[in-house]
Amino acid sequence: KARARNAAAVETSDWVIVKEGEQQFVGYDCTDIDAYILRYRKVSQKNKEYYQIIFDRTPFYGEMGGQVGDRGVMKYLDGETIDIFDAKRENGVTVHLTRELPEDNYIHHSAARLIVDKEARQATSCNHTATHLLHQALREVLGTHVEQRGSYVSPDVLRFDFSHPQKLTPEEIAKVERLANKG
Fold first, then answer.
1. How far is CA 163 from CA 8, 54, 135, in A?
2. How many CB atoms lie within 10 A of CB 41?
3. How confident is the model over 11-61, as pLDDT tens digits?
4. Under DSSP, is residue 23 helix (H, G, I), strand (E, B) or coil?
5. CB-CB contact of 84 with 73 (8 Å)
6. pLDDT at 122
7. pTM (2 decimals)?
8. Which residues have C-beta within 8 Å of that of residue 108, sequence separation ≥ 6?
9. CA dist 39 to 96, 111, 175, Å?
10. How does strand 112-116 pair with strand 32-35?
């Protein structure tokens, strides 16, 4: 247990405040935007280091409700490009995860172009819609007592957990598949 706790331990430095301000989410309207860094910090977890960055505006959807966060890049005018490998929601804001920070001058004086990976966003969106179609199909075939009990939605896969008192028959599975695919 102690080894498992140590392996999962997360150490974070204090937030470095660059600018005061609130974050605005614009990801429903666009997938790329210019934004300034509000704050950042270093994180150590499982012998790996990465950075958490909060921007004043973001098109990145943060992981929430079983749906993975967006990934993409931040670009500066000189061509410096930094991968954003994940985005998480924490305390009402989107936190962008990167393996490196931009040059110090950029952090304090330049806007970055935040660009969401549109293909991954679209695939995740399709799988998110599929969870709703699957839920409705399950309720039609098995009854309205069926409730969602969890899910995992990513660009590559979706998992849908639900309540039902017994194992589904092959016929029920086939009917659910037909309804969900028709949806």
1. 30, 37, 11
2. 14
3. 888 999 999 999 999 999 999 999 999 999 999 987 789 999 999 999 999
4. coil
5. yes
6. 96
7. 0.86
8. 18
9. 11, 13, 51
10. antiparallel
